[in-house]
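Here is an idea for our session: we take a single protein and study its fold together. Which protein we use is up to you, so please pick one and set it down. Once you have written the record down, we can walk along the chain together:
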Amino acid sequence: MSERERIAQIVAGLHLPDVDWPPTREFFAGAARGELLIPKCDACGTWVWYPQALCPDCASREIRWRPVAGRGRIFTWVRVHRSFLPGLAAQVPYVTALVELEEHAALRVPGMLAASEFLPAVGAPVEVCFVELQAVPQIVVPRFRLVAG
């Protein structure tokens, strides 16, 4: 098995998209540089999350990846004790959250919370951090961590 095939197998087990897949390539490239990037429509200014070819508000194709501050508040969260994703079974328990980014109240990004001994609360402030995957160190993913409010 080639190294690329091995990595593809691990990525599939973790249920991550291929970091070279065109719709999310810029997202993962930004994460590797320590930037959280979100697509934004140049025509009307709408944040376009989840990435798509057309702006959902004005149908423009003028969408570019823009850096965001990576700060926000927890909109909702869940602590997973039994993962339905085999690639994440070794990490249970873990917390996933929907984070409302400070750039816009409707801009909500899903993600895992970085290791924390405390359970979050809705509205708790968070900031992005970046983690290399242990199984595939060349892949960097964003996580969110709780910060003092």
